[in-house]
């Protein structure tokens, strides 16, 4: 196996970089998207509330793989052509962002009502109270669920291989086809995914400890 890893090292490094880029970029875009959708659910008027509900239902209720294929092969039929990587990122943002929107909605709704009153007492308007008082507390409590979503999103980048993005899974397929050593290369790639997930899980643990809310006297 070691000789295979050495020979495939440049491709594995490239695939790892692309995998990390996909996951980090998608999460960075999905979080503000999720907050916006959650606010539409919580505070939006009917013309915002119902579309946000429909969006969440559509993207949570259908497989991510289908969404990637629909965007990649379907959009060109209406004159919108996106390269493979932006297509995958868009699908990850919409799919995971809708899950994260529900997480954020629960976290925002769990912030005590008197925090709004405290913001107003300080002379803050509704928007500034939300941004400076409510949202930080909500995100703090949502670290465990958002961290888990991030780890899941990093693994879901493997689906980018179906539209020829050369991330880790695509690299394993390519090397396996060239060497006929599928088991070994997929074991190596699985280990790389595990290392990434383990590192993110440790980071999540540290963030949870850093932002832990004391409930004692």
Q: What would you note in describing this structure?
A:
With 217 residues, the chain is mainly α. It has one domain: MetI-like (MetI-like fold, Orthogonal Bundle), CATH 1.10.3720.10. 80% of the residues lie in helices and 0% in strands.
Task: Give the tags.
217 residues; mainly alpha; MetI-like fold; 9 helices
Short description:
By secondary structure, the chain is an all-alpha fold. 80% of the residues lie in helices and 0% in strands. It is flat, with a radius of gyration of 21 Å.
Largest sheet: none
Indicate the CATH topology: MetI-like fold
Which CATH-level-2 architecture? Orthogonal Bundle
Helix and strand content put the structural class at mainly alpha
Assign the CATH superfamily: MetI-like
Radius of gyration based on Cα positions: 21 Å
Give the helix level as a range of percent: over 70%
Mean pLDDT: 88
Strand content: under 5%
Number of domains: 1
The unreliable regions are: none
Distance between the termini: 56 Å
Provide the succession of SSEs. Answer: HHHHHHHHH
Shape descriptor: flat
Helix-strand layout with pairing:
Elements: H1 2-43, H2 46-60, H3 64-74, H4 84-110, H5 114-121, H6 126-141, H7 143-156, H8 168-179, H9 182-210
Helix pairs in contact: 1-2, 1-4, 1-7, 1-8, 1-9, 2-4, 3-4, 4-6, 4-7, 5-6, 7-9, 8-9
